[in-house]
């Protein structure tokens, strides 16, 4: 078999490698603030096809078209444009976050399909968080306050304030704070925990936001006071009842003794019955009859 000259091999190899479309992106990850314009860059190069087909798709639960057959679907119409193969989406929202794929089809090239992926992450500054603070709670109760901002991206971290002073969970603090979940927990509240509570959410996308402060009042449990009063009253009644019983028993005992004494002194035994009398006249007649 005759070997081809090196120059000819280079020409053949070059012809095969250049007969393919190439697609790339200069920014595979785009982070942009909400309500601004997001530019998703896509560059391509073809060898023969001067009019390739350009498509953009978004990957989510399924695959949806963003740009197809030189048109935008209704959800992107009027707020997106194509320059070359670069996609620009105006006034993005959190719903626009996701993975986008730029596809270029060049039917005249040897390898006629190329693609590049761009991930769009829309940053959302903190929103006013929802804060759950009860108006009142009983002394000694377990208590958990909740704070949540579901819209901020990246996820917010949280800080609690009492009377405009930040709460930090030190070793001897009667509470614990979860800065990621936004919870403030008390094992056993006291009257000193009464005050105005608010929560603040923050992230790297914007200024922190706080909910309106709410009053928390720690009060005595009325059931505990009622039970205490009832217990004291019951104890007093029990003592009074015991005293009355003792007095009655003593009085009854004295009456019995006096009755016994009176009965003993006034008791006179009845006189003995008289001896039987013998009728001598009847006795003699009886004896004479027998003889």
TrEMBL record:
Position of the signal peptide: 1-20
Region (Disordered): 259-279
Pfam families linked to this entry: Ig_3, V-set
Composition bias type Pro residues, residue spans: 268-277
GO biological process: leukocyte cell-cell adhesion
Transmembrane segments: 225-249
Sorted UniProt keywords: Membrane, Signal, Transmembrane, Transmembrane helix
Top-level taxon of the source organism: Eukaryota
SMART domains: IG, IGc2, IGv
One of the record's GO cellular component terms: plasma membrane
Residue ranges annotated for the Ig-like domain, each copy included: 5-119, 126-217
Record-given protein name: Junctional adhesion molecule 2b
Taxonomy of the source species: Eukaryota, Metazoa, Chordata, Craniata, Vertebrata
């Amino acid at each position: 078999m005759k070997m081809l000259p090196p120059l000819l091999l280079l020409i053949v190899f070059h012809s095969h490698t250049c007969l393919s479309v190439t697609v790339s992106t200069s920014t595979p990850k785009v982070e942009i603030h909400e309500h601004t314009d997001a530019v998703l860059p896509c560059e391509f190069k073809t060898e023969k096809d001067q009019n390739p087909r350009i498509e953009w798709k978004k990957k989510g639960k399924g695959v949806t078209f963003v740009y197809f057959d030189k048109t935008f679907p209704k959800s992107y119409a009027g707020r997106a444009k194509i320059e070359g193969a670069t996609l620009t989406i105006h006034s993005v929202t959190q719903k626009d976050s996701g993975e986008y794929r730029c596809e270029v089809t060049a039917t005249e090239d040897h390898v006629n399909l190329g693609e590049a992926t761009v991930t769009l992450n829309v940053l959302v500054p903190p929103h006013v968080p929802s804060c759950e603070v009860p108006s009142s709670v009983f002394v000694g109760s377990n208590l958990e306050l909740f704070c949540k901002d579901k819209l901020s991206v990246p996820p917010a971290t949280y800080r609690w304030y009492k009377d405009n002073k930040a709460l930090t969970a030190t070793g001897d603090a009667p509470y614990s704070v979860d800065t990621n979940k936004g919870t403030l927990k008390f094992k056993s509240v006291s009257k000193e925990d009464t005050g105005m509570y608010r929560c603040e959410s923050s992230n790297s996308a914007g200024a922190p936001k706080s909910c309106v402060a709410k009053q928390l009042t720690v009060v005595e449990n009325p059931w505990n006071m009622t039970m205490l009063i009832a217990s004291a009253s019951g104890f007093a009644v029990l003592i009074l009842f015991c005293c009355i019983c003792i007095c009655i028993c003593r009085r009854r005992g004295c009456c019995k003794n006096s009755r016994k004494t009176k009965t003993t002194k006034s008791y006179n035994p009845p006189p003995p019955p008289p001896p039987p009398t013998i009728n001598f006249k009847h006795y003699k007649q009886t004896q004479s009859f027998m003889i």
